[in-house]
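TL;DR need structure tokens for one chain.
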Amino acid sequence: MNGTDTNAPELPSLRGFRSLRDEVSAALRAALVSGQMRPGVVYSAPALAARFGVSATPVREAMLDLARTGLVEVVRNKGFRVTEVSEAELDDITELRRLIEVPTTAGLAGKVPAEVYTELRSLAQAIVDAARAGDLIGYVDADRRFHIDLLRLAGNATLVDTVADLRERTRLFGLENLAERGVLEASAREHLALLDLLEAGDGEAVRVLMHRHLGHVRGTWAGRAE
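>> reply
TL;DR here they are.
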């Protein structure tokens, strides 16, 4: 798919966030994962900045950060083109995520500090709220923060960085259809169920739920049957 950013996503307001550049970067990464920014399309920093209601500088800086990680490529005098990710690569990414995230999350059963549950439940509810509102960028961003914050409890920074990178390379082009049909919220509620199982200390049930949850990545969230 080639072209320019005439159909660039409506990105959320950034008012009230601590770091403008960080929030622009987070929103752009979520837009890539959710498919709001499509492979092959060239997006200009000024056009994206207009949707944020900010200057082009933090958008351009965030896009250059994405270019350094290979998520977009610079198109001279035009902007940035979203790079393609093949179906085989997406399958490989999901397999790696399952190998890492399922046992790591299951290993946290009964070990999450009580005070952390409040923060995680707030994020889990934000995922549900975004799904209900059809806010795909908000959904992906809250989902990323929830799982990354949870994995950090395992105490392995390299593991967290690896999963964060794999998540950024994931593509969930089926989310928009699920949101339009009003069924994305059901998947979102799995995060609340996961916290209940972790709090109950049921590691095997956590393992089963996480395996099914990650199955959505290459199933319904990607617009495919599971």
